[in-house]
Amino acid sequence: MSNSITAYMFLAMLLLSIGFLGVISRKNIFVIYMSIELMLNAVNLMFVALSRYNDLMSGQIIAMCIIAVATAEAGIFLSLIVVLYRRKKSLDSDIFNTLSQKEAL
Amino acid sequence: MSETAVIIETIVKAVVVLSVVAGMGAFATWIERKVLAFMQRRLGPMHVGPYGVLQLAADGIKLFTKEDIIPQNALKPIFVLAPIVAATSAFVAMAAIPYFPEFTVFGYTVHPIVSDINVALLYVMGVASVGIYGPLLAGMSSANKWSLLGAARAVVQILSFEVVSGLSVLAPIMMIGSLSLIDINDFQSGGVTNWLLWKQPLAFLLFAIAGFAETNRSPFDTIEFEAEIVSGFATEYSGMRWGLFFVGEYANMITIAVLVSIIFMGGYNPIWFIPGAIVMLLKVSFWIFLFLWVRAAWPHVRPDQLMWVCWKVLMPLALVNILITGIVLV
Amino acid sequence: MYEIIAFYTFSALVIGLFGIVVLSKNALYSMTALAGGMVFISGFFFILDAEFLGVVQIVVYTGAIMALYAFGMMFFDTTRDVKEDIRCKKIFYTLSILSAVLVLIVLSAPIFSANIEAIYPTLEGVGNVQTIGLLLFTKYLVAFELAAIMLLVAMIAGIVLVGKKLDAQSDDLEVAKELK
User: Fold this and answer.
1) Minimal CA separation from A71 to chain C, in Å
2) Which residues from chain C sit within 8 angstroms of residue B173, using beta carbons?
3) Number of independent structural domains in chain B
4) Is there a domain that residue B26 lies in?
5) Range of the structural domain that residue C146 is part of
6) Residue C127: helix, strand or coil by DSSP?
């Protein structure tokens, strides 16, 4: 188990890149949001692994703070999605382009 | 003891707990019918076996041989997954619960707990909260309005009462200073007067009410209330898939009964001359009976009344209880 | 040995489930897979002796956030696939997978080259609730309180966003637009 910290870090990075793939390749805003959660989870895993292998509890505290941030983010993002859906009746992220040059009034 | 031995012991314990609780759950269905029947001056199941005991077997055969229907528009993988989630989460929660005091068989000490983790109470409540995925996924994948309404009610009700049960159980934890259910049990050793019930009556009451709501028993069974939303999330289910939901519900009932007995009613400490294991069985049976008694005695409540009571009465009471406990402890 | 078996089992499960999250066309599949993956991530926390965090992961992520999120999904028809019209599919997918692989290489190359050594590979008694509590209420008190305030702000923001008053306003706006 001498290099298991490397395995944990690699796994965390792999999950992070999966989340990144989701954020850039999907157009359903629900799935984009879930990919963000997924990336937060990957970072969490890395913090906990590091805190275990360095004998520092700080990593776990930071992971808890990340979970708190994710909770707050979930609440706001969900209400944002509901508001956006009420306005445009769609979940496609391409429709929300009011600020883009092409579609501006 | 080597690692392998621990693993084998854990697996054996898990299988024993699983089979015993599943058996008790099945038996509880017969008990429920009988108790409800006697409370309503009926006889209940009488035809299969003596006093209808074998009705269990008949029901089991019926459930297993019934045609398995999956609606055309349902999302099949999720539709299949939902009952499994409901049953699994109910049973996995039991891994951290101690049932009896430790005893010795053939010179080998047995701890009747699958895994003694030091966050047992949080673990049990957390895994039980994962149980909402059963109704949730069932309702969302069935492509049926009643199912969807049932799922919505399930999420709202269970999430809300999770808050109440978590806050109400916080006050006893503050007094004990440990999340391990064994520590909680040992804290109350020494007779009936040491039960936490007398020190935390409000927390006990709130936890019991939240327990009724989380296991979706009447008077809080708005999730699958026949008169309003046909059968709630289980409308489209039949055969063994529906049976799995049922088993999960009864397993949840047993979990709540065991939790209340351990946290507030002295756990498996012996009373006077009665050994701990029998005391525990008596308490759990009493709680199961109470579940049925309340079902026979009380009418349903409306979902909005339920939410009103949860957020405007129970949660403030739980907070006040924590505040008072903190002041007294300091 | 069992730790290694558990690690690789959980890794395979988590990677598979998270793959479903990202690649599935149906949002309900994604949500279910993500909830399952989060449960298995908490399995890693249990292996790493962080039981409290593992339980918090289950309670908060799986039990609360994803359930809330599923509740939000009930506003939309979840049994149907959401159409995503993407022009130049081949280029799009190649580029996105390429960039994900690039992120992976960029982030994990330092880990392998630095050859991190665990300072204390095995340590007993770390990760219990008391230690977290002590740290949380002494060294990290400000962060803790700020997190509480942040949650309050988020709650108010959520209520205001979907509240009826704002809804009425946006309806007014839409009516005004139509009148124009």
Assistant:
1) 6
2) none
3) 1
4) no
5) 140-180
6) coil
* Cβ contact B120:B181 at 8 Å: yes
Residue at C115 is within a domain: no
Find the domain containing B239 and state its range: 69-329
Residue A19 to residue C30: CA distance in whole angstroms: 12
Q: Name the burial class of residue B182, with classes exposed (0-12), middle (13-18) and buried (19+) by CB atoms within 10 angstroms of its CB.
A: buried
C158/A76 CB distance under 8 A? yes
Please state the ipTM of this predicted complex: 0.81
| B31 located within any domain | no
Query: Which pLDDT value is given to residue A1?
Result: 44
Biggest alpha carbon–alpha carbon distance for chain B: 62
Q: Which of A29, A32, A41, A43 to mutate to test the interface with C (most CBs of C within 10 A)?
A: A41
Give average pLDDT by consecutive 10-residue segment, chain C, 180 residues.
82 89 83 88 84 85 82 69 66 79 77 62 57 81 88 87 62 58
What spatial distance separates the first Cα and last Cα of chain A, rounded to whole Å?
Answer: 61
Residue C114 lies in a domain: no
Does residue C105 lie in a domain region?
A: no
For residue A54, which residues of chain C lie inside 8 Å, CB to CB? Answer: 118-120
C118 located within any domain: no
B99 assigned to some structural domain = yes
Q: H/E/C letters for each residue in A43-100?
A: HHHHHHHHHHHHCCCHHHHHHHHHHHHHHHHHHHHHHHHHHHHHHHCCCECCCCCCCC
Total domains in the fold of chain C:
2
Question: Which amino acid would we find at residue C31?
Answer: M
CATH of the domain at C45: 1.20.120.1200
State how far the alpha carbon of B179 is from the alpha carbons of B182, C52, C136, in Å: 9, 10, 17
Asked whether residue B48 is assigned to any structural domain, the reply reads no
Q: Are C22 and A27 inside 8 Å of each other by CB?
A: no
**Hey, what amino acid is at C25?**
K
Contacts of A93 (CB under 8 A, 6+ apart): A27, A28, A29, A32
Please name the residue ranges forming H helices in chain B: 3-39, 55-65, 76-92, 120-130, 133-141, 145-176, 181-187, 196-199, 201-214, 239-264, 276-297, 303-309, 315-329
- φ, ψ for residue A90, nearest 5 deg: -155, 160
Contact C53 A60 (CB under 8 A): yes
